[in-house]
Amino acid sequence: xxxxxxxxxxxxxxxxxxxxxxxxxxxxxxxxxxxxxxxxxxxxxxxxxxxxxxxxxxxxxxxxxxxxxxxxxxxxxxxxxxxxxxxxxxxxxxxxxxxxxxxxxxxxxxxxxxxxxxxxxxxxxxxxxxxxxxxxxxxxxxxxxxxxxxxxxxxxxxxxxxxxxxxxxxxxxxxxx
Length: 177
Description:
Strand content: under 5%
Shape: globular
CATH topology of the largest domain: Serine Threonine Protein Phosphatase 5, Tetratricopeptide repeat
Largest sheet: none
Low-confidence stretches: none
CATH superfamily of the largest domain: Tetratricopeptide repeat domain
Order of helices and strands: HHHHHHHH
CATH class of the largest domain: Mainly Alpha
Structural class: mainly alpha
């Protein structure tokens, strides 16, 4: 799938839009098989194909794909929010599964370039993981590294470095990470 995506992007970058379409269609087909038709990763593949159709002036086809991508994203967001609410009610606000739900929402928002929502949910996930797992637990390393991308992207390099340093320190103490 990664190869088909790369070939599609390469063809598009070269202005070979017609030749890029079969690769984008192949990636979409593979993505549906791997992730399922309602996965946010499939929404990205739908969007990639829609961009190609749009660039070719095939506006009706592009619009259909954009709408399908939006439906998938809205369904995923609803399901992630629902899972979060259920887990918070059943397990309490400081449970690892609550943090997992927060992290999934953050990743979804990050993929949608909804930066403030993504950063908010990453911060909440991190604050939830820490009491559930402990401040030095290897399970929070990825969260620290992901969270560092937001301050870095908005010019808060000191804050980003703080998260990266903590992740590095934990990695050093747990060499298997």
